[in-house]
Amino acid sequence: MKKIILFISIVVVSSTYAQQIGKVEIKKEAGYGMKKFGIAPKKIFIQDFFVNYQMLYDQIEIAKGGREIGGGYRGDAKAQLVLGIQGVSETDLQEITDKLYAEYVSKLEAKGFQIITADKVSKIDRFKNWKLVKGGTPSKAQFPGYVSTAPTDVLFLVKNMNSEGKVKKKSIFDNGMGTSKDLDGTVVIRVNIATPFIKEAESQGSRALTKTFGGVAKIVAKTELSITKSTSVTKKGAWGKVLILNTSNLFSFKEGMKNQASLIIVPKKNILINDVFESKKYKAIKSASQDLWGTNYGAIKVFNTPDQVLKKMQAVSCDSDTYKNGVLQASKAYLDKSLSEFLINIK
Predict the structure, then answer these.
(1) What CA–CA distances, in Å, run from 222 to 16, 57, 279, 282, 332?
(2) Spatial separation of the C-alpha atoms in residues 93 and 276, rounded to whole Å
(3) Is there a domain that residue 18 lies in?
(4) Least confident of 43-47, 201-205, 206-210, 230-234
(5) In which band, very low, low, confident or very high, does the pLDDT at 296 lie, cut at 50, 70 and 90?
(6) Judging by beta carbons within 10 Å of its beta carbon (0-12, 13-18, 19+), is residue 199 exposed, middle or buried?
(7) Nearest to residue 154, comparing CAs of 207, 111, 94, 211?
(8) With 119 labelled, which of 64, 73, 201, 337 sits at a CA distance of 20 to 30 A?
């Protein structure tokens, strides 16, 4: 009787996790010569394994004022919406990343692959001036509002890192092929995962209305935790540089012109992680001041239109275990499917 009760308990828990994750679909962003992976040496260099977790959403919208059609003046309006996750620590995030990496490596090793470490790779000319960095210390410097993590005690090569810990991005032309060739055909793997918890939620009709009549700074966002193919982050408010975060799993192999293969797997659509946050919309709306008539001072008319500013800050609470389980399951499902696309070519 005790065995039956235990079995039922396990089924219930597994079912709960399954329900928490939305549909997991992947697609080949790029790829060719995949069968050539089968002749590559049984060696893997995991060049990147970075997971980026959004912990803070900070958005600014500005409606510029000026002279009104038909007379009068309107001031500027500025709205700022700041939302932060409450209940999840950096230790929790690091734990997720460490588990994902351990399982990922375990699956590769089970197929007979040897993992080549970054300290050995650092000796080739390509990485002569690069820096070895040990994972395990979460960083807030890479992307505003995000905590970036790499697996604990695993070494990675970075081209440049500033005093705040921000790593310089690789060239868009670096697809891993050159590194693979320099390593005598070792397969190069790069893993990057982006996990936002908020998405913009203003309807197209509302946007059009606000744009048509103007004078209103409006931000509408809602909770949606997911593994996303791509998301953008504004570096400084509404006018700063836009940074792009991607979720992708790259595999590259090259021994020569005849023996080379490439594969990039991305989520086909956002992998939703349900039941972590309350489903809710958050708004920050501020209307500009107007002075249609002004005040006459002799030959001079003065318009009084002070700028209007609204800053709204709010904590978005969740249970740490529910967050960890959800993100872990969604990330693992994506990585498992990505690895399957690569390993199908391996005998």
Answers:
(1) 23, 11, 7, 6, 25
(2) 15
(3) no
(4) 206-210
(5) low
(6) middle
(7) 94
(8) 337
Mean pLDDT, residues 278-296 taken together: 73
pTM over 0.90: no
Phi-psi region of 314 (alpha: psi -120 to 50; beta: other; left: phi over 0): beta
Q: How far is residue 318's CA from residue 277's CA, in Å, rounded to a whole number? A: 6
d(CA 80, CA 196): 19
Q: Domain range for residue 208?
A: 24-343
Copy the structure tokens of residue 187: 């397969």
Q: How many domains does the chain have?
A: 1
Kindly list the distances between the CA atom of residue 288 and the CA atoms of 53, 65, 208, 216, 285, in Å, as whole numbers in the listed order: 35, 7, 17, 6, 10
Determine the Cα–Cα distance for residues 104 and 291; give it in Å rounded to an integer: 63
Flag whether 19 is in a domain.
no
Residue 186 to residue 193: CA distance in whole angstroms: 23
In a domain, 11, yes or no: no
Residues, the chain: 347
How far is it, in rounded angstroms, from Cα 276 to Cα 206?
28
Q: What is the distance between the alpha carbons of residues 288 and 335, in angstroms, rounded to a whole number? A: 48
